[in-house]
Protein: Pyridoxal phosphate homeostasis protein
Amino acid sequence: MNDRENEAKPINDQTGHVSEPAMSAAAIDGAAALRSVFQRVNQAAEKAGRVSDRIRVVAVSKTKPVSLIRQVYDAGHKSFGENYVQEMIEKAPQLPEDIEWHFIGNLQSNKVKPLLTGVPNLAVVESVDDDKIANTLDRVVGNIGRKPLKVMVQVNTSGEESKFGVEPSGCVGLAKHVKEACLNLEFSGLMTIGMADYTSTPENFKMLAKCRSEVCKELGIPEEQCELSMGMSGDFELAIELGSTNVRIGSTIFGAREYPKKN
Ligand SMILES: *Cc1c(COP(=O)(O)O)cnc(C)c1O
Structure:
């Protein structure tokens, strides 16, 4: 398994083709793109009768250069997301310490220590999908003596085999394990990616909200204390309508991603 599998791919990636970048990195105005995303977030929140300052925008900067991340940071943004450990470890030290980094990719146990020591300002790991990785995170946080780490439980709401995440029926058990057995972790919500081609997006998002009801009931916590991380460039407005508190937006802020060509 490789890190790159835990990500939403552009539709044409499913055929193995990689989309051409729409613009070169130099042509991207990160600040303007960020403003327009916030406008759309505000509109979606208003439409849903929600307060938009309860919705966090995580700017997903994977594959993008530090200079472009810096541009978006300088425009006033603090939350960024990466999903490859190696890339995050390389970029984070070159950027301001008050950035709140979200790790959103598949995490292997042997990468936990390098991630936590390399990124002291790691704010959240959104992709905890079994007891083992939760236990490893818990132990390493304790060993290095950093403050408690927020984690979300990743749920596979689309039923696709290639997707990481616990089955919806397992989310209560895993959330309970994090809350009760991992004292160095702070359970902070649920995350999902949803169907890559967006065909069942509303169902996926409704499923995550249903998981939250069950988790909150079982753990005895109010729903406001359990975030819903759902919604990406192609579906964040719908996600906000359906209750998302954390949207993860990459290409709409940073431009299309360029991957090495597969042959
Ligand atoms: C890449 C990625 C995103 C952002 O995707 P865009 O469609 O570019 O907004 C969000 N979540 C995860 C888990 C990702 O891997």
